[in-house]
User: What shape does this take?
Amino acid sequence: MPAPIVVEVTRGDVVEARHRVHAVAVHGSRRVLAAGDPALTTMLRSSAKPIQALPLARARPDLGDGEIAVACASHRGTPEQLAAVRRLLAAAPAREEDLECGGPTPVEHSCSGKHAGFLALCRAMGWPARGYRLAAHPCQQAMRAEIASAARVDADSLPTSVDGCGVLTFALPLERAAAMFGRLPELEGGARVTAAMRAHPELLLGVVAADTSLMASVPGWIAKGGAEGLLCACSADGLGLALKVEDGAFRAILPALAEVLRRVGVDPGDLGTVAIESSQGEVVGRVATASGPVSPVSK
Assistant: This one.
């Protein structure tokens, strides 16, 4: 098995922590790169959102790019993001009280866009809105079928659990996840979803912003992060990536992502090193790959 990427957290000259990152790149049916274990199975968590938005994109051609983009988001609850969620709810049509994603208020939850999209899909398909998040509901059964089809796996054998926002989450080996993302632009509804994400990266911006940072730094790419240190991405020409930090620490993703991009011949720009600052704004350390070229320090 190829060695994983090692990301070090350094303060001064002392390494305070190390993170092992497993990564795989797939183009078509060909594995282009592997670091660590490409068969490592992990829950997709929020990285599944662009795939989960495909049925919505197909069922509701009347929706704007902003509404499709926020359905893919793990947002920060900014006024602009919440306005997009409310537009999607109005278009569903549904009320904020219909959201089943928890608090602080349902519309402010980072996954409210996805949930609003589920409600819009339920209206389009004639499914009951109540209980849309539950595993037995037609909405979640449709999500399971969509993930299985995109990943080319058997839906009945697809491991599932409950995500943080209460809906189903799905487990795939990293190589399957990378191949699935590489196929995203070609899937039915995929061109619309990826175009919406590229048009409105500000609506995708969350607390962990590695996906938005990639989209801003490298033209033509889309990406979506998931909890516990997962990032999936694809280029305009169908190169799919999946990266997983073994210990779940998301701070290792950007340096590891930059290293993967370099290895597949893509200039990562300033993604490669993350500065560590004191409360006075002084740069006192960095998060960077343990070996190989290092790009300039950036926040």
The chain has eleven helices and twelve strands. Residues 29 and 179 are 8 Å apart (CA to CA).
